[in-house]
Amino acid sequence: AAPIALDRIRKQYPDGTVAVTELSLEVEAGELMVLIGPSGCGKSTVLRMINRLIEPSGGRILLGGEDVTGADPVALRRRIGYVIQNVGLFPHQTIRTNVGTVPRLLGWSKDRIRKRSDELLELVGLDPGKFAGRYPHELSGGQRQRVGVARALAADPVVLLMDEPFSAVDPIVRTRLQEEFLRLQAEVRKTIVMVTHDLDEAVRLGDRIAVLSQGGRLEQYASPAKLLGE
Ligand code: ADP
Ligand code: ADP
């Protein structure tokens, strides 16, 4: 079964806004799937339904073939890494403690958390000897973004969700982060859903691109080459 399958999911917010009308999609193992579309077309809503920050109004979400639509959201989030635009690091915790957030929830030992945090900082290109003991405000935007990726990968989630992960940094840093992220993904091979509104980014990073229009309607779902008509 596909690591992620959306089966006719819908979302209507309490105020009546229909953000997603009816969306079906499958993401394959190790694939980086990009959700792209204009502002307000429901991209973030789709991601937030997958990790159940919000409840779908209808349809099913399957992870590895298992219907998780009624599952405990907290347990679910341990299987799903989540990276957002402004990272949301805890300002009064060190970088190491931030990276260890989910492992701590899972009750890992201190030693194991420390080892894992350092390994991940290394993986995202931050020397743990230099950065592990720092606080978020002592890092650049690009570095904080890498910490966000490290934190999302900490408990080795099955699935990684990324909402505009590189859009809060300047264009030069963004390009570098994208390149580094591609190298990282070649190593870790996560199943990823990434939201962006940037076509260049979608084409550069995506194995497949889902183009949405208003109301979360799926217009196209294809490889970048196919989408660009090559
Ligand atoms: P995108 O990520 O593509 O910009 P969103 O998923 O954030 O789009 O929003 C989709 C639609 O749902 C928009 O019309 C937005 O205004 C609306 N929306 C988002 N969150 C809420 C909410 N909590 N309550 C009501 N409407 C919302
Ligand atoms: P990036 O290109 O990754 O965004 P910057 O050019 O913004 O990085 O930062 C350059 C260097 O300055 C980095 O090594 C970073 O660790 C360091 N730095 C930035 N802000 C601070 C700070 N407040 N305290 C200590 N070092 C900092």
From TrEMBL:
EC assignment: 7.6.2.9
Keyword Hydrolase tagged: no
An example molecular function term from Gene Ontology annotations: ABC-type quaternary ammonium compound transporting activity
Domain of life: Bacteria
Keyword terms of this UniProt record: ATP-binding, Nucleotide-binding, Transport
Name of the top EC class for this enzyme: translocase
The keyword Transport is assigned to this record: yes
Domain ABC transporter: 4-230
Family to which this protein belongs: Belongs to the ABC transporter superfamily.
Protein known as: ABC-type quaternary amine transporter
Protein source organism: Polymorphospora rubra
Covered range of the whole protein: 20 to 249 of 342
